[in-house]
Write a structure and sequence with these properties.
Blueprint (H helix, E strand, L loop, with lengths): L12 H10 L13 E12 L2 E9 L9 E7 L6 E7 L12 E10 L2 E10 L2 E9 L6 E3 L15 E12 L2 E10 L3 E9 L5 E9 L16 E9 L14 E9 L2 E13 L2 E9 L8 E7 L5 E7 L5 H7 L1 E2 L1 E2 L3 E5 L5 E5 L7 E7 L2 E13 L2 E10 L4 E8 L5 H4 L10 E7 L5 E6 L14 E5 L5 E9 L2 E6 L2 E6 L8 E20 L12
Parallel strand pairs: 1-19
Antiparallel strand pairs: 1-2, 2-3, 3-4, 5-6, 6-7, 7-8, 9-10, 10-11, 11-12, 13-14, 14-15, 15-16, 17-18, 18-20, 18-21, 21-22, 23-33, 24-33, 25-30, 25-33, 26-27, 26-33, 27-28, 28-29, 30-31, 31-32
Bound molecules: 2,5-dideoxy-2,5-imino-D-mannitol.
Length: 522
Amino acid sequence: MTGLTHPLATVPQDELVIRAEADPHRPRFHFVSPAGWLNDPNGVSQWNGTYHLFYQYNPEGAFHHRILWGHATSTDLVNWTDRPVALEPSEGPDSPDADGCWSGVLVNDGGTPTLVYSGRHGERELPCVAVGSPDLLTWTKAPENPVIAAPPAGVDVTAYRDHCVWREGSSWRQLVGSGIRGRGGTAFLYESADLRTWDYIGPLFIGDAASVDPAAADWEGTMWECVDLFRAGPGSLGDGGGPSDDVLVFSAWDDGDTRHPLYWTGRYSGDSFEPAALHRLDYGGRHFYAPQSFIDDAGRRVMFGWLQEGRTDEAMVEAGWSGVMSLPRVATLDDQGELAFTPVPEVETLRRDHVRLDPQGVAGSEVLAEVAGNQLDLELDVELEPGSVFRLGILGSSADSGAALEGTAPGSAEETVIEVSRGTGSDSWLRLDRSRSSLDSSVDAEERSGPVILAAGRLHLRVLVDRSAVEIFANGKALTARVYPTLGGTSVRFAAAGSVRLLQLDAWRMEGIFSGPRPLFP
Ligand code: DQQ
């Protein structure tokens, strides 16, 4: 560490871990940094059987500044062991990463673990490389850094950072996220023989920031952060494929505003990407941001995302920690050619105290006497007739909140409500109502929603509640969000309007993955 301090570094560093551990909103079975700030997943991978999760980390406090790469490893994607910080800024006027080691990826360079990341100096980010020891615990920065000296000449870029790197034939290819002022987000394509010298090819594809209202949930933004290009259909990237077999994931950014993750389906061929359709990746918007994915040894496309906080900067700083890593989720293409998500099955090893409810009609509102808690895994199969609505209330603080669940009257208690409504046509919706999640009026309480397909009225709903982190999967569509109840509510209830049948409900309490305080610098 240097002696540099930031105005937001108001909590002594040796107090951060204690504060973080004491915070009731801190998740227990999601990966979080030991304390301080965490944002994007980086270098996600499986190397010689071991899973590696690197992440944007500021151990100085719960704010984004002078970012390091934290590192944790796992053999099961569930339990994580902290490893020494992998990358930290190198000081000096000529250092390309003097002000931060920003997001990037891990690649296997003929057996040598190699990181490609964005070095930040001043307001500028440029591609850098670091080479790892065989155990991936010690990293040496390449003397050639930055390996690309500047964004493409003659292009007025809104920003330029983050990397997707893959092997194609005998070459390396790289995308760098960017945006062209006045047009839209883009990813610049480069090629290299050695990861050190890169030839610029051109923009892979340029988005259109004017295609929809900037307020829209699928606005492309003016810059694409954390681009991630992969083959979701059969075969592998670069072998042609069908018109919608490739996926280009990005996080829509606009002048410092982290908006939401989106993806194009299309075909990557030659030096360009022919788009088919644009989709929302997670209906939680900024609460599942900067996702990055990899193929593991089992052939699964595993994705992590950053669950941004929904509380004020001051509240984060006071809490001593900020930022949650999503549970790893498997991405597949569904029948509609869209990404479908489900948490990796390994998460189920944390399940305890199983409760099962048998088939029953749902009428009015009912508290589940057998199920309560703020660390839960809930799995439901529900059948909805056209025009009906199913609601699941979680983190409820008193029996009085039944009125809210039925949508009739607001009360003073807290409750977070997940709602699935079946339209009379094909318009069915997943909605998260956070309007009564917290009595704290300073936290984000905006509604989140998006369309779901209920074939024959059937819904498979999975809800993972981990204190302030909530991950919802409804027939493969993900909605991730943060909630900050103040009353310590643990009740679970369901309710219905119209004709709804619960086919099965399984519930478990979830075990935590860390046994106590962890050192800021393992
Ligand atoms: N966060 C990183 C950037 C990236 C952004 C900096 C996305 O590299 O563009 O911490 O959250």
